[in-house]
Amino acid sequence: MEVGESNYALLSSPYDSFMQKHLQHYGYFTGRSEVVKKYGFVPSKPQLITHSSDSDSSSSDEEQGPPHRRRSPHEHSEYKGRPLITDPKTAFRQNRLRCGLYLRSQNDESSFEPRWPTEIEVLPESRVRHIDVQPKQPELFNKPNPKDHMPYVRSADEDNGRTVFNYNPETCGYYMRSRIGGNRDGCRQAAVKIRDSDDTTVLFESRFESGNLMKAVQVGEFEYELYLRYDLYTKRNTQWFYFRLQNTQANKRYRFTIVNFFKSSSLYSNGMRPLMYSVHDAENNKIGWRRWGEEIVYYRNNLTAPDNPSANMYSLTWTCKFPNDNDTYYFAHCYPYTYSDLQDYLNGIQGDRVKSQYCKQKVLCRSLAGNFVYMLTITSPPALSPVPEQQLKKGVVISARVHPGETNSSWMMKGLLDFLLSDSADAKLLRDTFVFKIIPMLNPDGVIVGNYRCSLSGRDLNRNYKTILKDAYPSIWHTREMIKRFMTEIELVLYCDFHGHSRKQNVFIYGCENKHLPKERLKERIFPAMFGKNDISKFSYDSCRFKVQKSKEGTGRVVMWSMGIKNSYTLEATFCGSTQSEQAGHQFTTRDFESIGYHFLDSLLDYSDPDPTAS
């Protein structure tokens, strides 16, 4: 199909065909185990509908307890004025909007709280918050040493080591329903109890937003082997990690080894360090996240993959000393940015009298778990825009966080929004020239539960932009349909989806070239080339690629290009740092990621400048 053709056909894959039948025949599952009865939704006979239905019959999505049971405050957190619709044909107990897009301000406060699958335990604690403070000195790449120790995984044998934390959600294999606060039975004891003041056991925890530690095994006094939870309803996808530690001792050398990675290579072999956060240092010294650890090695270990006995798993090991006694620490793969962080940010925009004039927030759809997928429309209102009526604005669509573990994409999005909503002359010119449609978090469910790649469907959303399954992939389906409508109203000049990359350094772009239209060829490379000139310390044009591979046909970039958007891109930013210019050897901070969003807009201005000598 040539670029420019708008009659893009939505092709159903074998998986789509399977899912259609799966959804249509909901009610005939055989696996009604105790876990389904406890956590899931068992339909009554009138709900066993075998034909496709799009009924608007209203019902609450909150769990129904036994008669006369006093309901918890969370169970009363309904969406006022917006009936929540249970689609009988789908196994995904979701909340469908009765009337499409509506203003974010029409929701009550409780509706902004994260909704969790009902089998997930969530700590009844105050939300985890971190300060965002930049390091005073550049954080340099770690220098790998081939002599560094690569521990053998001892906990593979259950007789070796002592399990000090164990939390593996009991699921029925697929998503059923959600509620605010997760499991209504609360949290069980997942970590060991400290015996006395001489007990040096580290207390681990991850049952908070975006946390994902599954198990910790003590194999030495100060040595622990860690297992990450796989993406929910899958047996794969471990890369992101985020967990808490307490009862550590200052100036003791600890070793932590995460033992269940799947990828054969990693940026940890090329200078990347884990991130560490000290609550004491944040509160008393205004120190935020910092790169931490020594003797960092990423290597193949002696474990076999759960879905392929012939394949090995990989370990990441590091040693470190903690600066304080009686402190609370966090480790993370990248700077966390949660669904609640996004809510706070959007609330700030909405509460700003000036910014709210040209940034309109709506709910594009709800996710499988009923969390909001927001869409921002940013442009100068007609009364404030100096652009003549005959000079029509052009459209730009930007999205992020389709892969929940790629938190750097949210920091890039924050930098873009900060600049676009600022009072600078360039920001005003951008708002006068373009209509921006921005979806800052495509996969809120995955972000909330701590997934790395998938949604609660157990699938990679960025391989399903061709989908016809509105109920299985709501954010993807609604995004694509929104773009199709937008293209009938305006000339859409650019689409870009923000991502993080786990194996390559720097910042770069994936685009789409059309070999069948010689006159159009190479035009898709102009914007990336301008980006490279504007951000020479981070952007690598040499790392950009423009081939359309068959395995990428379901990505947002390729599908939007096939719909006729010539400049259709994936913007990738490393989790590590730069090898470019004066910033070579420096690991990225949140400010570095935010600056990428600024340079993206700066390059867009250059690209749209009618004066060919301007850039």
TrEMBL record:
Residues 335-608 form the Peptidase M14 domain. Pfam families: Pepdidase_M14_N, Peptidase_M14. The keyword Metal-binding applies. It comes from the Eukaryota. Its cofactor is Zn(2+). Gene3D superfamilies: 2.60.40.3120, Zn peptidases. CDD domains: M14_AGBL2-3_like. Belongs to the peptidase M14 family. This is Peptidase M14 domain-containing protein. The lineage of its organism: Eukaryota, Metazoa, Spiralia, Gnathifera, Rotifera.
